[in-house]
From TrEMBL:
PROSITE patterns: CLAUDIN. The chain crosses the membrane at residues 7-27, 79-99, 119-141, 161-184. It comes from Ceyx cyanopectus. The gene is Cldn1. This is Claudin. The keyword Transmembrane applies.
Length: 211
C-alpha cells in the first residue's frame, strides 16, 4: 500500500509539472521590461516569449506580434524552443507509459513485473522531460541576466525574468521530483531462502542396543 501511495503521488506531481511546462512554453512572458519614457501616459510593458512579443500600454491594451520567420530567430532561441517542445512530447509519452504501470489501473495485471517496470520507465521519461525543460529555462534565464548586466545594453531595453521562467523552473522541478517518486515506488525484491531442513534428533541411548 505504501508503494502504491508513493506511486500515485509521483504521478500527480509529474503530471502537474508536465502541465506547467506546457503553460510556460505558451506564455509570452519569458522576459519583460517596463519603459515609461518622458511621459507616464506613454508607459508600456514589453514582453518577449518563444513564439511572440507583446506590448501592454498604460491603458491596458495589449498588442502581440508572432515572430515572422523561424530562420531569422537567434540560434539560442531556436534551441530553447526545441528543448521545451521535446520536454512536452516526452512528458506526453511518460503519461501514457506511467498510467499503464500504475497499480490502480487494470492494464497488464497478469504480469506484475512488467507493470512495475512500465511505471519506473515512465518515471525515467518524466525525469528526462523535466531536465530538458530545466536546461531550456536556465539557459534562457542566463542569457537574460547576462544582457541585463551588460554595460553596453541600453537602459530602456534591459529585460528581466518573466513569470513564464518561474513557472518553467517550478514545473521542471515537479516533473523531476514526480519521476523520482515513480522510480522509487517499485518494491524491493525480498531474497527468499530455502526452508531449513530439520535434522532428526538422536534417540537417547537406553543401553539395550548392545548385548
Amino acid at each position: 500500500m505504501a508503494s502504491g501511495g508513493l506511486q500515485l503521488l509521483g504521478f500527480v506531481l509529474a503530471f502537474l509539472g508536465w502541465i506547467g511546462i506546457i503553460i510556460s512554453t505558451a506564455m509570452p512572458q519569458w522576459k519583460m521590461a517596463s519603459y515609461a519614457g518622458d511621459n507616464i501616459v506613454t508607459a508600456q510593458a514589453l514582453y518577449e516569449g518563444l513564439w511572440m512579443s507583446c506590448a501592454m500600454q498604460s491603458t491596458g491594451q495589449i498588442q502581440c506580434k508572432v515572430y515572422d520567420s523561424l530562420l531569422k530567430l537567434e540560434s539560442s532561441l531556436q534551441a530553447t524552443r526545441a528543448l521545451m517542445v521535446a520536454a512536452i512530447l516526452l512528458g506526453l509519452v511518460a503519461v501514457f507509459v506511467a498510467v499503464t504501470g500504475m497499480k490502480c489501473m487494470k492494464c497488464m495485471e497478469d504480469d506484475q513485473v512488467k507493470k512495475m517496470r512500465m511505471a519506473v520507465f515512465g518515471g525515467v521519461i518524466f525525469i528526462i522531460s523535466g531536465l530538458a525543460a530545466l536546461v531550456a529555462t536556465s539557459w534562457y534565464g542566463n542569457r537574460v541576466a547576462r544582457a541585463f548586466y551588460d554595460p553596453f545594453t541600453p537602459v530602456n531595453t534591459r529585460f528581466e525574468f518573466g513569470s513564464a521562467l518561474f513557472i518553467g523552473w517550478a514545473a521542471a522541478s515537479l516533473a523531476i521530483l514526480g519521476g523520482a517518486f515513480l522510480c522509487c515506488s517499485c518494491p524491493r525484491r525480498e531474497t527468499s531462502y530455502p526452508p531449513t531442513r530439520g535434522y532428526p534428533k538422536n534417540a537417547p541411548s537406553t543401553g539395550k542396543d548392545y548385548v
